[in-house]
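== Polypeptide entry ==
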Amino acid sequence: QVQVVESGGGLVQPGGSLRLSCAASGSILSINSMGWYRQAPGKQRELVASITSGDTTYYAESVKGRFTISRDNAKNTGHLQMNSLKPEDTALYYCKCNARRSALRTPADYWGQGTQVTVSS
């Protein structure tokens, strides 16, 4: 099995910064992509940023220029650096890893439990 754990959330004032971390462990051959999603109360889960194994990145328009996604392939970890945070960034942030467990298995998506980010004065 594959476990995904997020950390780094918390309460921060508007304009502040947080760095989220995502750690994948278990029976992993390779991770194709990592993505950060968020879900605010009463809203649908949305993709915030993603990164492929070749370091191709995607950012939602709402976070471009403020968030930076990165990954360490050797450690099966990823990070989301969030700067200039706004109250509208408040949400539960999830990490999703598309991972292959063996050469014979189809890659699958694995989700963490989420880490809360609250931006408020």
Summary: The CA atoms of residues 10 and 117 lie 5 Å apart.
